[in-house]
Write a structure and sequence with these properties.
GO molecular function, one term: structural constituent of ribosome
Pfam family, one: HHH_9
Number of helices: 30
Oligomer: single chain
Strand order of the largest sheet: 6-5-4-7-8
Protein name: Transcriptional accessory protein Tex/SPT6
Low-confidence stretches: none
CATH superfamily of the largest domain: Tex N-terminal region-like
CATH class of the largest domain: Mainly Alpha
CATH architecture of the largest domain: Orthogonal Bundle
Structural class: alpha/beta
Number of strands: 15
Domain S1 motif: 642-711
CATH topology of the largest domain: Tex N-terminal region-like
Number of domains: 5
Length: 715
């Protein structure tokens, strides 16, 4: 395997512009069970300080090459079984670097279902096909007469010639130069044409933008490609993908036509048939797959970027919270949570129509705020959200309180999930949903990891992209965010712990079980007492787990236990304690990093340790920022062009960003309205949950569409 990894490392290094040793060491670490967060944080010397994106690219490309190798071995075995494996063919197969190249080589040897060419061969017409391919100046009909055989259903010279052309068409289709020429043309010039399905123009009106459009497929924006493919899937659009037909056939003719006689005309007919019946559909499928993969990659990248921003949104922190899941007829569900997010109380109020029990609702809320020492109120932003916010703001509390609208996307999914049932078996979905809203305000990351990322509502065409690739990317994102922030060992849920490097659901469950049975962990070393928590899990996970009240201050930090002795040597060299070193900047300034380099810990690790000692265990997320909508605007009907409003970014796509302005319908800031300059990528300008000022440009109440501008608001 080492030789193969060397080979892979060389190839991946060239593709990613890295050093082969960096790639080789990364592959070696991964094969030893190292996770991407662990390598990025604690193995910088081995990887040359590669970041998570580079490490993930190495992992994914290595996986592709392994799969390619599997396919190569299968193909070699298959051709060998047919006794057709020549030294030259074997060399070509072994040197193929892409799946497409491999499949092209295998195509002539691939077991086929019955085709027109195989039927023609069964009729004994292959010798005639060879005569035609020679294109000597002979009479083709005269040559074909020798192959007439009524018993084989070859009743005329034309029957024989038609069969021979079928065989030639298959040869053309399986020719490597032919496939390469046509593939190059498709890649450079293939157009995607979209037309409405006749009779379904009105039913598919939401695809009206794609009626009678044509554009170069590999240059079309990802959202348009995915929309067109969805329209085709739903039966409203008819798509075609190809370059100019005459160009493709001209290229093939240059390869296969050798003369200018009657036999050449037969070959020309076969070449045209090969393109239209075999090559064009094959290349169209390839091009669709390529465009779909490109569009998927872009959409998944947007989704993962949005998810990262949402997961790393600023937490309010540990506060006593009153959380409200608003509603009209069914009332507003209230829950009181303590600073650890534990449910203390729940009940329902009915301050809105049809009940209008405002006085009773005010009394209940005031009593709960007083009884449970509430410090913040979280209000879901769904149905009745703005009305509930206005109701809360009018209550005269006996203490300063912040009330915050919380994006509740996915809360209903959580409330009906197995995770929620396990946490709150005795409560119904409305209580669980309110708890999720409150906890999401306190710590978005800790709560959102319990919800399928696809349900959080920050994706673009998430149901249209490759679901396996999407899941893979989103899982990478969640793992990255969890390990970037770090996890408090004594309060984290099983779901949050399961994303910590080296753990997973099983060990995470064992940690919680051990914690419930034996009480809080007092040191990281105690993790080794947890069932199935071995040395490897400890190596991978320990640095990302924090113990706030640990006796050893390093257990509260991101310093890995394997480096504790380095910190102790630093303290010893200054005649102080580790605690002194953490608390006193002037002591840390005296440390000469190069004096503490060891065989396993180089300067990158030593510098990381010193940076961590300066801010041990500090949350890397931004500080929480209060935000209020305009109180005079509550519904889309209240909006007028020209209004300048506060908003919050809820979703970012390739074509712009959606903004919540407090009217139960997000508005769109098109990419052209984001800044007074050309913006290629909306992520250059905004991020999820960012507070922005926007100007209302246009309102379509009937279609529930709101057009907004950031540059107009700024100007």
């Amino acid at each position: 395997m080492t030789d193969q990894n060397n080979q892979f490392a060389e190839m991946i290094a060239r593709e990613l512009n890295l050093q082969p040793w960096q790639v080789f060491n990364t592959i070696k670490l991964m094969e030893g069970g190292a996770t991407i967060p662990f390598m990025a944080r604690y193995r910088k010397e081995m990887t040359g300080s590669l970041d998570e994106v580079q490490l993930a690219a190495i992992r994914d490309r290595h996986q592709q090459l392994m799969e390619l190798e599997k396919r190569r071995e299968y193909i070699l075995g298959s051709v060998q079984e047919q006794e057709k494996l020549t030294p030259e063919l074997e060399k070509q197969i072994r040197e193929a670097t892409t799946l497409t190249a491999l499949e092209d080589l295998y195509l002539p040897y691939k077991p086929k279902r019955k085709t027109r060419a195989t039927i023609a061969r069964e009729k004994g017409l292959e010798p005639l096909a060879k005569i035609l391919m020679a294109q000597n100046p002979v009479d083709p009909e005269e040559k074909a007469e020798a192959f007439i055989d009524p018993e084989k259903s070859v009743n005329s010279a034309e029957d024989a010639l038609a069969g021979a052309r079928d065989i030639i068409a298959e040869w053309v289709n399986e020719s490597l130069p032919a496939r390469e020429q046509v593939r190059n043309l498709f890649t450079r010039e293939a157009m995607i044409s979209s037309r409405p399905v006749k009779g379904k123009e009105l039913e598919g009106i939401h695809y009206q933008n794609y009626y009678d459009t044509t554009e170069q497929i590999l240059r079309a924006p990802s959202h348009r490609i995915l929309a067109m493919f969805r329209g085709e899937e739903e039966g409203f659009l008819r798509l075609a993908v190809e370059p100019a037909e005459e160009k493709a056939i001209a290229r093939l003719n240059r390869i296969f036509l050798k003369g200018d006689n009657e036999v050449t005309r037969q070959v020309e007919m076969a070449v045209k048939d090969a393109y239209k019946r075999l090559l064009q559909p094959s290349m169209e499928t390839e091009m669709r797959q390529l465009a779909k993969q490109k569009a998927d990659d872009e959409a998944i990248k947007v989704f993962a970027g949005n998810l990262r921003q949402l997961l790393l949104a600023a937490p309010l922190g540990q506060k006593n919270v009153l959380a409200i899941d608003p509603g009209f007829r069914t009332g507003c569900k209230l829950v009181c949570l303590d600073r650890q997010g534990r449910l203390l109380h729940n009940e329902t109020i009915y301050p809105h129509p049809p009940q209008n029990e405002v006085r009773e609702a005010v009394a209940k809320v005031k009593n709960l705020v007083s009884a449970y020492g509430v410090e913040a109120i979280a209000i879901g932003n769904g149905t009745a959200g703005r009305e509930t916010e206005n109701f809360i703001r009018k209550i005269p509390f006996d203490r300063p309180l912040v009330s915050i609208m919380v994006n509740e996307s996915g809360a209903s999914v959580y409330s009906a999930s197995a995770v929620a049932r396990e946490e709150f078996p005795e409560y119904d979905v409305t209580v669980r949903g309110a708890v999720s809203i409150g906890r999401r305000l306190m710590d978005p990351l800790a709560e959102l990891v319990k919800i399928d990322p696809k349900s959080i509502g920050v994706g673009q065409y998430q149901h249209d992209v490759n679901q396996q690739s999407l899941q893979h990317s989103l899982e990478d994102t969640v793992i990255s965010c969890v390990n970037q922030v770090g996890v408090e060992l004594n309060t984290a849920s099983k779901q949050l712990l399961s994303y910590v490097s080296g753990l997973g659901p099983s060990i995470a469950g064992n940690i919680v079980e051990h914690r419930n049975k034996n009480g809080a962990f007092r040191s990281r070393k105690e993790l080794l007492k947890v069932k199935r928590f071995g040395d490897k899990a400890f190596e991978q996970a320990a640095g990302f787990l924090r113990i706030r009240d640990a006796e050893n201050p390093l257990d509260r930090s991101a310093v890995h236990p394997e480096s504790y002795d380095i910190v102790q040597r630093m303290a010893d060299s200054l005649g102080c304690t580790v605690k002194n070193l953490i608390e006193q900047e002037e002591l840390r300034k005296k440390i000469m990093p190069e004096h503490f380099v060891t065989q396993s810990a180089g300067l990158p690790t030593i510098n990381d340790i010193l940076q961590e000692l300066a801010k041990p265990g500090r949350d890397p997320r931004e500080q929480f920022d209060l935000f209020e909508f305009d109180n005079s605007i509550n519904s889309i009907e209240d909006l007028k062009p020209g209004m300048i409003l506060n908003g919050i970014i809820t979703n970012i796509t390739a074509f712009g960003a959606f903004v919540d302005i407090g009217v139960h319908q997000d508005g769109l800031v098109h990419v052209s309205q984001m800044a007074n300059r050309f913006v290629r990528d909306p992520n250059e300008v905004v991020k999820l949950t960012q507070k922005v000022r926007v100007k209302v440009m246009d309102v379509d109440v009937a279609r529930k569409r709101i057009s907004l501008s950031m540059k107009e608001a700024a100007g």
